[in-house]
Amino acid sequence: MTTPRYIYSLMKIYWRIHLRFYLWSSGRIGHILRGLPILILNTKGRKTGSPRTNALMHLPHGRNFVVIASNLGVNNNPAWWMNLKADPITTIQIGGEQYTVRAREAEGEEREKLWNMMVEKSPDYESYRRGTSRHIPVVVLERQ
User: Fold this and answer.
1) CB neighbours (10 Å) of residue 105?
2) CA-CA distance, 120 to 66, in Å (whole number)?
3) Is residue 46's pLDDT more than 60?
4) Which residues, in sequence order, are CB contacts of 96 under 8 Å at separation 6+?
5) 69: closest CA among 90, 79, 131?
6) How far is CA 35 from CA 9, 64, 91, 118, in A?
7) Rounded to the nearest 10 degrees, how much is the dihedral formed by the CA atoms of 1, 78, 8, 106?
8) Does pTM top 0.85 for this prediction?
C-alpha cells in the first residue's frame, strides 16, 4: 500500500515550510529530523532548467552523503532524483556550508549496506519499500 494522497500532500507542505526555516536560519532550525541530519539539495529542472531546492534527510558517509529517493513510498521517483539523473553535478548545503557534489546511484552490496544503515536510523524507509512496487534508489552524493 502506498502513502495515502492526503498524507503525501501534507508532507510536501511540511517539507516546503521546513526548507524555508532551514535556509532562513542557515540550518540552525531543522538541522536534524527523526535522528538524521538534513541537507539542502539544489538541482536544475530537467525539463525547465529552473532551479529546484529540496530539504532531505541524509546519512554522512566518509566525505560523502547518502540520500534515499523514497518519495514517501509513492510509485514514482521524486523529481529531484530525475533532475540529478539528467545532471548529476550540483550543490548541497549543510548548515551554512556549501559543497559541490556528483550524484550516483549505489548498486549491489554497497546499496544494501547503505540502505540498511539508513533503515537503522529511520525505519520509515523500510515501510516505504514495502509499500511500493518500484525500486527505491539509494543515492550517493560524492564531494568534488
Assistant:
1) 16
2) 14
3) yes
4) 26, 27
5) 79
6) 23, 18, 23, 10
7) 60
8) yes
